[in-house]
Amino acid sequence: MSQSEDNKTDQVEEPRSDDDSVEQAEVQTDQQDAEATEAAAPTTPEEIAATVEAILFSTDAPITPAKILQVAELSSKKDVTAAIETLNARYEESGSAFRIETIAGGYRLQTLAAHHQVLSRLFKAKSESKLSQPAMETLSIVAYRQPVLRADIEAIRGVACGEVLRKLMEKMLIKIVGRAEVIGRPMLYGTTRRFLEVFGLASLNDLPRADELREKPQAKAPTPPPADDAVEESQDAGTPDEAPAEQPEAPQDEAPAQEEPKAEAVSE
Question: What are the C-alpha distances in Å from 22 to residues 25, 28, 153, 197?
């Protein structure tokens, strides 16, 4: 064998093991992910607004500002607030049918109430998702009086509420929030975050006041006074119940008195 062939043989690299190949590939993947993350991080207000919009558009559940900061890798909560104000101004200017609303401590894209009738014809609510009248009454009592005992709920409604409370807990609208410091330590009930999401409330402070729920009595319209012509006619005709005054009749057996003839003057 020649010397040149010996040199080629010495220059041949030893085959690498599979572990070394896998480790090198993982290092390259991590570097690519880091570079992609740095490139995708929003910096300008327009990029931040687009990123926040994409996050809100991808989910139907409210997202807290802290979650948006974590996902978008932003440095300040003011960036999120400014982005939402920019997006809402853009939606209003373009006449869009939705806005970003504060729901249950987070942000969510919501359709305007003006389009409710159209959407209700498109999306029919499932029968199992509807609440019965007893369930709505019980849920209202819990919402306004929480934390509240089951005995207090039953005292207000006048009927047993154990089954209704169980169904509301299954729908994750109410939950047990503690126990009362009385004999037996009965459970106290309150609403959940799911309750705020379903009814579109930012907090319990947005519940309508009790006086706003009462029906206001309608004022009776005053009776218009009668017209002048009708008054005159009624005065001329008199009331039908009143009979005309009777004139005294002259006695028939007495003849009317005759006038005595006057004496004529005789001319002499």
Answer: 5, 10, 64, 47
Same domain, 132 and 202: yes
CB 215 within 8 A of CB 172: no
Same domain, yes or no, for 32 and 58?
yes
Number of domains within the chain: 2
Q: How far apart are CA 207 and CA 145, in angstroms?
A: 12
User: pLDDT tens across 81-119, in order?
Assistant: 999 999 999 999 999 999 999 998 899 999 998 888 888
Could you say which of 62, 83, 115 is where a domain stops?
115
The enclosing domain of 51 has a CATH number of 1.10.10.10
Q: What is the pLDDT of residues 190-229, one digit of tens each?
A: 999 999 988 888 888 888 887 766 666 565 555 666 555 5
CA–CA gap between residue 80 and residue 239 (Å, rounded): 81
CA distances for 169 relative to 50, 105, 162, 175, 195, angstroms: 38, 21, 11, 6, 11
| 3-state SS, residue 109 | strand
Domain assignment of residue 243, yes or no: no
> Against a cut of 0.90, is the pTM above it?
no
The answer to whether the bond into 147 is cis (omega within 30° of 0) is yes
Place of tokens 């309750």: 195
User: DSSP character for 207?
Assistant: S
Range of the domain at 64: 19-115
Using DSSP's 3-state secondary structure scheme, residue 106 falls into: strand
* Among the ranges given (21-25, 52-56, 104-108, 187-191), the one the predictor scored with the smallest mean pLDDT: 21-25
